[in-house]
Amino acid sequence: MSSLALADTNLASLPADAVVVGLYRSADGAPTLAPGAAELDAAFDHRLVDTLVLLGATGAVGEVTRLASLGTVPAPLVAAVGLGAAEDADDEAVRRAAGAAVRALAGSATVALALPALRPAAEGAALGGYRFTRYRAATDTDRAPVAKIQLVVPDAKDRAAKAELKRAAALADAASFTRDWVNSPGNELRPPAFADAVSKAATKAGLAVEVLDEKALRKGGYGGILAVGLGSAQPPRLVRLAYSPRGKAAAKVALVGKGITFDTGGLSIKPAKGMWEMKSDMAGAAAVAGAMLAIAALKPKVEVVAYLPMAENMPSGSAYRPGDVVTMYSGTRVEVLNTDAEGRMVLADAIARACEEGPDYLFETSTLTGGQVTSLGHRIAGVMGSESLHERVRAAGERVGEPMWPMPLPEEIAKLMTSDVADLSQVATGMDRSGHMLQGGYFLSRFVADGVDWAHLDVAGPAYHESEEYGYLPKGATAVPLRTLVELVVDVADNG
After folding, report:
1. Residue in 162, 252, 270, 399 annotated catalytic
2. I need a labelling partner for 97 at 20 to 30 A (CA). Which of 74, 253, 303, 350 fits?
3. Which domains does the chain have, with CATH numbers?
4. What are the Cα distances from residue 266, in Å, to 140, 313, 316, 440, 463?
5. pLDDT digit string (tens) for 155-170?
6. Residues contributing to the annotated binding site for Mn(2+)
7. Which tens digit of pLDDT belongs to each residue from 209-218?
8. With a threshold of 0.70, does the pTM exceed it?
9. Residues annotated as binding site?
10. The dihedral of CA 358, 359, 363, 365: what is its sign?
């Protein structure tokens, strides 16, 4: 991850490989410079905008225009990044602009940014500099990520500015862990290895860690986790992470994340096309683990416990079958109709166990259904659960740039999930796909204890994508919804 630092040196005299300023788009004429660029513009005899326009700059969000300084300032390269119209340049526009600028300037050792809104600029810059190259030999055309990012502020010693930078760095560092885990191939990050990796990072961060292996899961009656893991040569795990603040906690929050390290669909096997992306089916658990690392660094006044059920869903002679009846951790008996609906099986056990901790709020996230992508696309997550939390979750996602949209759990979905032979059907009877995303939410609701406010975040699309990188999000793992989870925990700490 790129390192972050504050600088209060005049941008026109700051030693760096590149300096970056913001550019607002104008509907009536030439774009205009954002605050923070005045000294640099003066060094160019107030012709900086004219020069940028000659190079094609418009101020569109994320557009990066570069020009050689030719000795006008110490930095050999000057870049302007678009923020969009001034009236629309919110925190997310700044994040996207900062990420785009740092990505465009890869190969530079030090980059200085003078952009409005310190924390979004720092977050976007650090997140945008991420690269996953662990398994690829370096070539002559590769450009290394920016090593050091300097955020230009009026006073580098200001305590508020330091706090903003600390939070941005904690989130970006945690997101780097999450992205690395999700991007890792399925043959290297199987359940025991994933549990070990999370345990190592969490222990170093000062979190309490407990790992249940297959023997402990069997003894504890975790039928859903065990059933999904039956087909794999690598046994399942359940990881518990806990954070306790100093002094009195404002509330207790439980986080749960789906950790299917690879999903073939089991005996209900998936088509070959696109199956390689199923290494990302543990993105929910990775995001929760990353959120816990950030929480440990930020130290909010709230108690947080996380449960990460991990399994590999494989077809074999020992795999669970359509038609099986599985006794879950809660004692509920579930009729299995589709072994590719495995995520809800492991999550149900983890949710029931997390509820025994007596949380005030429970937030669960998972790459649960293709129905989420069909309904909301690749950039907007679906939110289900307690209606009292819908707006709180949506607002938290909006603040950090991870869009969420509340979805209902109507009565007709419950009717679809009845079983003639068990307490509950795993999917709709007859494999009816209508309301597929809602079916997953309803199933999970049956394992939430009475009195616990809860929310299910289906991030099947936003957590991982193979399309082009944009803003501060790379191809592959994005770490969504890590920052939303942290924002929710901080919100609970501040407001109960």
Report:
1. 270
2. 74
3. 3-153 (3.40.220.10), 170-495 (3.40.630.10)
4. 42, 5, 8, 18, 22
5. 999 999 999 999 999 9
6. 258, 263, 281, 340, 342
7. 999 999 999 9
8. yes
9. 258, 263, 281, 340, 342
10. negative
